[in-house]
Amino acid sequence: MLSIEHLTLQLPYYTSWWRRRWAEVLSDVSLELHPGEVHAVVGASGAGKSLLAHALLGLLPEPKHQTGRLTFQNRALTAARQRQLRGRELALIPQSLDALDPLVRSQRQVSWAASRAGHARSDAWQAAGQALTHYQLDERGRQAFPHELSGGMARRVLTAMAHVSHAQLIIADEPSVGLDPQQRNRVLDALAALALEGKSVLLITHDLRHALPIAQQVTLMNQGRCIETACASAFRGDGDTLATGYARALWQALPDNHFGVLTTTQAQNVA
Amino acid sequence: MQLIAITAARLLRLALVLVCVAVVSFSLIMLSPIDPIDAYLGPQMAQVSPEQRHLIAERWGFDEPPVVQFGHWLGQLLQGDLGVSHVYNQPVSEVIGQRFQRSIMLLGSAWLLTTLIGFALGVIAGAKEGSLLDRIISTYAYLTASTPAFWLAMLLLLLFSVYLGWTPVCCAGPTGTLSQDVSLATRLHHLVLPVATLALIGIANITLHSRARMLALMNSNIATHAFAQGASRWDIAWRHGIRHASLPALTLSLASLGELFGGSILIEQVFAYPGLGQATVAAGLRSDVPLLLGIALFTALFVSVGNLLADTLHAMIDPRLQKVTP
Prior knowledge:
Strand order of the largest sheet of chain A: 6-7-8-3-9-10
CATH superfamily of the largest domain in chain B: MetI-like
Strand content of chain A: 25-35%
Shape of chain B: globular
Oligomer: heterodimer
Number of strands of chain B: 2
Number of domains of chain A: 1
């Protein structure tokens, strides 16, 4: 469905008033997404996960240097096509809860998302109500303002906004951050359900443990590079089938495994 | 029930503000060099002997301590008696009533124009930072924000009344005509230039504040998320922008009623428009104490009501400011 080949992204920064330099924030990133699949992108903060999401949707501000090929449903994903498909075929579940407009009730926000996705005016309101009901928001939750919602409820409103668009590719940016286990499972189950409908889900997270139960593929990122793409099933036991030392070290460092910490020199060798 | 409590609390606060204004303005008048007897007598001052002056002072209670005098004044005020203006030879409440009717035409239309146009320009400019429209609107706003109202009034007067002759030079109606004989069209004709001056100046403030809020919104996660949903810039400005930018615009426009009031004093002076502003100047220059105090109280009431409205409306638009009923 989506393939990213050798995506490199440079963003400008200024060392002084007039001297502009370019920082490489994504280098040579390649990955492949298939329909009906949850593909997790895991990395520490600053690894470039959110930038990857924004680059896929064409949301990054100019000026920027971007090279590499993006292909969506067998056609090149150019800036013009991104603009055309945003909200219709490509949807984003944003990382931050303040992406919800604090002055607008949740059902109205979802209905705006629906009408932006091409629903007719009369249809949008109904579709929004159905989407919110689907994510277990009752009448009170539908009529609530964002500050009246809990973190998990707000997250489900954001998911409903992506769901109502009927997009084929859903990019979820850290959807489980800051939620208690029960709420987190609800949000992750909702994403897994979207994949079961035949959509592709790109799950961006910093926590490998939360991604593994629902993901089929896992890509590890570090400092703007893809370290390794592996099957989710490779993360088991001692992680012997993992190709890179970084992935094995990350896997073994998890509390459920050995809690293994490498010494500084070993860590440098791995990276 | 809750609404009644809130309204009662607000009205109580309003009354407190008015009492404070009464105390402060009364003490300022007491401290001022105005001698009420001189002001009352006017040119006949020289014909009155010191004994007669003493009699007047005794009759009016000027020999009593200031606190007692204030008590007398406040007592009369509560009965609705603001005293008699010697400049206009009318009860103060009548003077204020008549003048305010004329001023409210000027102030009201200027205020409405300022708010609507200023807000619209701010939203348009802020929707796309650095666009041609934004640059034109910002330049206009910065220019007029630094222009004094009376200076612009004189320029407009020179251009439209003196050179072009399109608008009348002064007053609220043709000179020599009784005020009840003036038709509505003529009244409006006389209003055009003062209203235009006040609006042209006032727009800048509201535009710049709404624009700043729009810029913040356009760079926020809300806008990024809307862009990700496929919204266009104008879609975001229309759906999210109007709500967000109306908060500073409303607060500012209602709170600036006082400023507009101050501005109208200058404008009414330049255009010789017989409104409340001109009455204020006349009362000040000719030591008309009751009228001056009356206008001070009335202005305080007017401005406080404006702020009260701003508070209430702000809470209606921004749900985060409403009290939660558990």
